[in-house]
């Protein structure tokens, strides 16, 4: 029998009726042995995720009125799940204990991790699987990175002693035993780590969309589903905001050769998207998908004969390093170089520019804030003549001004920078250009 790890996201476990769907899915396939739940997510667009309520509880732990308001909201949600499913879980005691710890000054990581912790206990009881606390199997080292040796050895040992288990997502424990969380969306990473630890045959990631779509469904109506996508393509799209999978999920499973299948809890018959390590067939449309993200600033540095100046780029990067800033892209011309930076990373743009001026003595520096980047991705792109022409024609026809262009040397990706206000229109234009028959 094969072994599958199934991660269920917050929308998949947002209320009791979603829990019922999840149980049916798990029971349909005996190979679904190890289950990783997130905390209950939004039940509808206006709702608040449990994780966000926990952040609010932390922020307002000194304000009795607001604290009680947020804590009561999350308490009500767990109690109704347990009651509606008629489970024998001492939920009031569990919540009371957590409330006490928050009021006694528990850490932020401990508090927000409780969303997954409680959900894991409830789900384990509901499906009759063992509950294993992630704090006992996922470890971080002193640098805050995953302690791979300790983690994988422990997972392998503990989970080989259990035929099945529910392991809550999103957290593990620090070198000193304290709870430490991953970044937001991190239950995907937990699922990936468990999949590697048990050497799973498949990592299933159950969410609220039928797999990876060619574009964000909140921008494009009913985008086509991608049946198969390579890790490389997915990485490019995730990096640029296609947020189905946390970007750190991909590498551990890629290295272990475990395929990922994205599935829809609300449409379990749909085969979803298979993420594979390599594909030799170019996609039908020449592109696999398009994704975009706001919040970038471009700094363009111009200097005549820059190309002959040894160490020019190093000097720029040294300034970035000093400011603790990484770059997203670095397109260059003969006499220009553009730094594409995440705006939120730039604390003091004036001193940054001043230091670049002092180090590089450029002829001019231009700062362009408010940029959105859009990645059009697909292995098919390099085999299809006219693919770039189609993209730029579509943008021109929609009056969208392109501020920057970058094509990675892998040729599976064309990046364009547009003004933030144009992001949605640009994504729609590109999507339509490759999916509408001509
Ligand atoms: N290209 C895309 N394909 C599918 N979903 C996308 C895409 N880009 C963005 N999304 C969004 O990602 C969401 C799923 O990710 P997430 O909210 O993290 O789910 P979960 O709570 O199940 O972990 C979808 O509801 C959708 O709005
Ligand atoms: N609950 C955490 C972790 C997570 O992965 O959630 P989800 O699977 O609902 O994106 C968060 O909101 O960040």
From TrEMBL:
One of its GO terms (biological process) is diaminopimelate biosynthetic process. Substrate binds at residues 51, 116. It catalyses: L-aspartate + ATP = 4-phospho-L-aspartate + ADP. It comes from the Bacteria. PROSITE patterns: ACT, ASPARTOKINASE. ATP binds at residues 7-10, 207-208. Pfam families: AA_kinase, ACT_9. Pathway: Amino-acid biosynthesis; L-lysine biosynthesis via DAP pathway; (S)-tetrahydrodipicolinate from L-aspartate: step 1/4; Amino-acid biosynthesis; L-methionine biosynthesis via de novo pathway; L-homoserine from L-aspartate: step 1/3; Amino-acid biosynthesis; L-threonine biosynthesis; L-threonine from L-aspartate: step 1/5. Its EC number is 2.7.2.4. InterPro entries: AceGlu_kinase-like_sf, ACT-like_dom_sf, ACT_Aspartokinase, ACT_dom, Asp/Glu/Uridylate_kinase, Asp_kin_monofn, Asp_kinase, Aspartate_kinase_CS. Keywords: Amino-acid biosynthesis, ATP-binding, Diaminopimelate biosynthesis, Kinase, Lysine biosynthesis, Nucleotide-binding, Transferase. One of its GO terms (cellular component) is cytosol. The keyword Metal-binding does not apply. Residues 376-438 form the ACT domain. GO terms for molecular function: aspartate kinase activity; ATP binding. Catalyzes the phosphorylation of the beta-carboxyl group of aspartic acid with ATP to yield 4-phospho-L-aspartate, which is involved in the branched biosynthetic pathway leading to the biosynthesis of amino acids threonine, isoleucine and methionine. Belongs to the aspartokinase family. This is Aspartokinase. It comes from Alkaliphilus peptidifermentans DSM 18978.
């Amino acid at each position: 029998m094969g072994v599958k790890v199934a991660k269920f996201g917050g929308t998949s476990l947002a209320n009791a009726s979603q829990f019922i769907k999840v149980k049916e899915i798990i029971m349909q396939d005996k190979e679904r042995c190890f289950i990783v739940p997130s905390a209950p997510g939004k039940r509808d667009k206006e709702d608040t995720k449990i994780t966000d309520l926990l952040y609010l509880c932390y922020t307002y732990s000194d304000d009795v009125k607001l604290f009680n308001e947020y804590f009561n909201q999350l308490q009500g949600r767990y109690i109704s799940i347990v009651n509606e499913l008629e489970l024998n879980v001492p939920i009031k005691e569990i919540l009371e204990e957590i409330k006490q710890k928050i009021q006694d000054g528990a850490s932020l990581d401990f508090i927000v991790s409780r969303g997954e912790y409680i959900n894991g206990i409830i789900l384990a009881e509901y499906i009759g699987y063992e509950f294993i606390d992630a704090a006992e199997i996922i470890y971080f080292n002193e640098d805050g990175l995953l302690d791979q040796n300790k983690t994988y050895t422990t997972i392998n040992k503990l989970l080989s002693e259990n035929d099945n288990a529910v392991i809550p997502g999103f957290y593990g424990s620090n070198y000193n035993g304290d709870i430490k969380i991953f970044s937001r969306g991190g239950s995907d990473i937990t699922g990936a780590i468990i999949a590697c630890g048990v050497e799973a045959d498949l990592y299933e990631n159950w969410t609220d969309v039928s797999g990876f779509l060619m574009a964000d469904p909140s921008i494009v109506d009913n985008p086509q589903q991608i049946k198969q996508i390579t890790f490389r393509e997915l990485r490019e799209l995730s990096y640029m905001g296609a947020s189905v999978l946390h970007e750190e999920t991909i590498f551990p499973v890629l290295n272990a050769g475990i395929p990922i299948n994205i599935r829809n809890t609300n449409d379990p018959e749909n085969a979803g998207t298979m993420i594979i390590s390599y594909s030799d067939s170019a996609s039908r449309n020449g592109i696999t998908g398009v994704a975009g993200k706001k919040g970038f600033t471009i700094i363009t540095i111009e200097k005549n004969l820059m190309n002959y100046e040894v160490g020019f780029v190093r000097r720029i990067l040294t300034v970035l390093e000093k400011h603790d800033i990484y770059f997203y892209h670095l397109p260059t011309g003969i006499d220009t170089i553009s730094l594409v930076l995440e705006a939120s990373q730039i604390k003091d743009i004036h001193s940054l520019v001043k230091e670049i001026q002092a180090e590089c003595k450029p002829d001019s520096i231009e700062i362009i804030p408010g940029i959105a980047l859009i990645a059009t991705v697909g292995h098919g792109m390099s085999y299809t003549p006219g693919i770039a022409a189609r993209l730029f024609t579509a943008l021109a026809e929609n009056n969208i001004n392109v501020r920057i262009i970058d094509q990675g040397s892998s040729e599976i990706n064309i990046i364009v920078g547009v003004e933030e206000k144009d992001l949605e229109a640009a994504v729609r234009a590109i999507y339509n250009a490759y999916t509408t028959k001509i």
